[in-house]
Write a structure and sequence with these properties.
This protein is mainly beta. It contains 1 helix and 10 strands.
């Protein structure tokens, strides 16, 4: 476990997170993760701390509203999420590894979820799931 420093693109928001990146990160092919290229490291909520610019945070949630994604209102970068999902062990924080200032994301191994097809029960795979378009996936209920 190491404390990593992170930020948005413009620097208005800074955060730190206690993460064990030796366990790798995860990527998901669901619509939001794919469009954001979110490369995630999971943490307990108290392991993620905003250290500057909290007033500049915006949030986005959709669907079942189990998680909120936080972004910078100035530059739009999505840095982390927070939520509560029984299947993920309850309350969690999810940090975008691409936003860590002291980590080369290419040095972190990745595992893959098949969220595009709600195939959570299959668990993590060592390579990306095949891309199969979902009819009407461009339409998102708000």
């Amino acid at each position: 476990m190491k404390t990593h420093q992170g930020s948005c693109h413009c620097g208005a928001i800074r955060f730190e997170a206690d993460l064990d990146l030796s366990q790798g990160g995860t990527m998901c092919n669901c619509s939001i993760c794919s469009k954001l290229a979110f490369f995630s490291s999971k943490a307990q909520p108290e392991q993620l701390r905003v250290t500057a610019g909290e007033a500049n945070l915006g949030s986005y949630e959709w669907g079942a509203r189990i998680g909120q994604r936080y972004f910078c209102r100035a530059c739009g970068v999505h840095m982390f999420g927070r939520g509560d999902l029984k299947e993920h062990g309850g309350a969690f924080a999810s940090v975008n590894i691409h936003c860590l200032d002291d980590v080369d994301p290419s040095s972190v191994s990745a595992m893959y979820w098949d969220g595009r097809h709600d195939n959570w029960q299959a668990g993590l795979a060592s390579k990306p799931w095949p891309f199969v378009p979902v009819a009407g996936s461009a339409k998102v209920a708000m």
